[in-house]
Amino acid sequence: MNSNTIDVTQASYSQIVIEGSQQNFVVVDFWSPSCEPCRQLLPLLEKLSVEYGFLLAKVNTDEAPELAQHLNVRSVPDVRIYKDRVVIEQFTGALSEEELRGIFNRFMAAAASEIEQSIDAILQLAADGEKEQARSAFSQLLEENPDNSDIKLDYAKLLMEMGDQDQAYTLLSEIKQGDELFP
User: Fold this and answer.
1) Which of 10, 161, 28 lies closest to 92 in space, CA to CA?
2) Are the beta carbons of 96 and 87 closer than 8 angstroms?
3) How far apart are CA 105 and CA 40, in angstroms?
4) Rg of the chain over all Cα atoms, to the nearest angstrom
5) Buried b (16+ CB within 10 A) or exposed e, 75-99
């Protein structure tokens, strides 16, 4: 679980999801431990929560059946996107990463572009000859977004330019098969 993911109960739902959606997008994943599609969907949602910057609120329907019933959750996985206290999108079933990205891009492209802007600014530092500052900035950005493959790839390129092939290789090895940047 990453820092963008939180387990939610009936008692914490209102504060975390409803109130939290006033500051950021909150994606609620209603799931059950016995649900295979839920287990397939969760890692994708966790990965994308880091990339898009949304809060992923997980609700185990086995542990919070009253909440699921109150919100008319009929089957799992049931995913709802909240912004400003209301559901702006909802789907059921396990979707592919491409389908999820399509949904999130409609609403949250700004969060992804913030990371892209940060990467561009860091690359400009390096181009201006401030490679140590760029290295430090990449390190901090990666610490804040540890699952972002775009950061890892561009950081690795900088490290290779600076002659630190070992650290570059370590970063590149963290990009796993199935990631669009893997090739």
Assistant:
1) 28
2) no
3) 21
4) 18
5) ebbbbbbbbeeeeeeeeeebbebee
- pLDDT tens profile 88-142: 999 999 999 999 999 998 888 655 567 788 888 999 999 999 999 999 999 998 8
Tell me phi and psi for residue 43, to 5 degrees: -60, -35
Which CA distances in Å does 124 have to 21, 120, 130, 162, 183? 34, 6, 9, 15, 25
- Contacts (Cβ under 8 Å, ≥6 apart) of 180: 149
pTM of the model: 0.62
Tell which residue, 75, 76, 73, 64, has the closest CA to residue 16.
64
Catalytic residues: 35, 38
Q: What do you get for the CA distance between the two ends of the chain, in Å?
A: 26
**Residue carrying structure tokens 């910057």:** 53
Asked if 25 contacts 112 with a C-beta cutoff of 8 angstroms, the reply is no
DSSP-derived letter for residue 160 is: H
One-letter identity of residue 1: M
Residue 167 in tokens:
């650290």
What is the helix, strand, coil percentage profile of the chain, to 5?
A: 55, 15, 30
